[in-house]
């Protein structure tokens, strides 16, 4: 997958909670990536096997339809981790360095 | 009098605001979702996401989905159509490879394969779930005479 700002931002958002469930709207808010870019990217990640998806249990919610969630796979953690490692050394992503730094500092602990 | 004029100015504004932040995003999204194939998970996903987007943000959020729906949705439709074509050929016990605009039949049976000669054509009826009753026309440009499976559809020249 081509390394773009959006990909790095989404990788940060997903690896922020590597074992959690992520929702499209919520993820787009946290990453600052608009939906028109995010959803096709999630589809590509699903195709690559970096993510798995599922649906909310309808019995646990009320008044709204069940939402689709995404969860990182082991392969996804590795690949997106590698994307972030490369982004850290790439001057194109200077603007994202503070967020990357925070993430790596948390993993270092 | 001025109060009446003020009211006339305010009411349309209020109605427009209600439309933009009320019904319009739902309607626009429903129309956009039609770009995706019927059973595409993105249809249900985006509809469910819209319900959790704050009202004031909805018009902008729906606008964000336009390019995704057009590119991703239409691409999925095109891909689905290609896969359907493949499924049809499986249903007929025919293995079909498309080469350019021609159709190459590698194996077919049900009536003597010898009857299918290069240049032959026949009408078929699909039995796949998505294409019930749809008719199409195939031009046979090559036949594998070692085919063993039977084709169950009558020849209709």
Number of beta strands of chain B: 4
Biggest beta sheet attributes of chain B = 2 strands, antiparallel
Number of strands of chain A: 3
Q: Give the terminus-to-terminus CA distance of chain A.
A: 29 Å
- How much strand content do the residues of chain A show? 5-15%
Query: What is the chain-wise order of helices and strands of chain A?
Result: HEHHEEHH
Which series of helices and strands of chain B comes N to C?
HHHEEEE
Give a brief rundown of this model:
The complex is a heterodimer of chains A (109) and B (157). Chain A is mostly helical and 109 residues long. Chain A has helices at residues 5-15, 24-31, 35-48, 74-88, 97-108; strands spanning 21-23, 51-55, 68-72.
Task: Write structural notes for this entry.
- The complex is a heterodimer of chains A (109) and B (157).
- With 109 residues, chain A is mostly helical.
- Helices cover 55% and strands 12% of the residues of chain A.
- Chain A contains five helices and three strands, in the order αβααββαα.
- In chain A, helix 1 (5-15) crosses helix 2 and helix 1 (5-15) packs across helix 4 (74-88).
- Chain B is an alpha+beta fold.
- Helices cover 48% and strands 13% of the residues of chain B.
- Chain B has three helices and four strands; from the N terminus they run H-H-H-E-E-E-E.
- In chain B, the strands form two sheets. In chain B, strands 1-2 form a two-stranded antiparallel sheet.
- In chain B, strand 1 and strand 2 (102-107) form a beta hairpin.
- Chain B starts with a helix and ends in an 18-residue tail after the last strand.
- The chains are: A mainly alpha (109), B alpha+beta (157).
- The A-B interface holds A 23-25, 34-37, 39-40, 43, 53, 55, 64-68 and B 41-42, 44-49, 51-53, 61, 64-68, 71-72.
């Amino acid at each position: 997958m081509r390394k773009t700002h959006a990909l790095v931002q989404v990788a940060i958002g997903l690896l922020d909670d590597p074992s959690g469930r992520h929702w499209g709207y919520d993820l787009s808010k946290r990453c600052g990536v608009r939906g028109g870019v995010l959803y096709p990217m999630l589809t590509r990640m699903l195709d690559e096997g970096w993510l798995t998806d599922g649906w909310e249990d309808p019995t646990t919610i009320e008044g709204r339809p069940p939402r689709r969630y995404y969860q990182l796979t082991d392969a996804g953690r590795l690949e997106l981790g590698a994307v972030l490692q490369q982004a850290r050394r790439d001057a194109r992503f200077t603007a994202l360095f503070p967020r990357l730094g925070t993430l790596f500092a948390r993993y270092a602990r | 009098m001025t109060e009446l004029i003020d009211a006339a100015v305010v009411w349309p504004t209020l109605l427009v605001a209600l439309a933009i932040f009320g019904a319009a995003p739902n309607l626009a999204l429903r129309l956009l979702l039609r770009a995706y194939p019927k059973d595409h998970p993105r249809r249900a996903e985006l509809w469910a996401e819209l319900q959790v987007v704050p009202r004031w943000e909805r018009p902008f959020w729906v606008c964000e989905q336009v390019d995704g729906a057009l590119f991703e949705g239409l691409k999925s439709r095109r891909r689905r159509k290609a896969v359907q074509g493949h499924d049809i050929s499986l249903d007929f016990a025919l293995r079909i490879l498309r080469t350019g605009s021609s159709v190459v039949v590698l194996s077919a049976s049900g009536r003597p394969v010898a009857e299918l000669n290069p240049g032959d054509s026949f009408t078929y009826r699909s039995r796949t779930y998505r294409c019930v009753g749809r008719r199409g026309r195939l031009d046979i440009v090559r036949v594998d005479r070692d085919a063993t499976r039977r084709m169950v559809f009558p020849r209709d020249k």
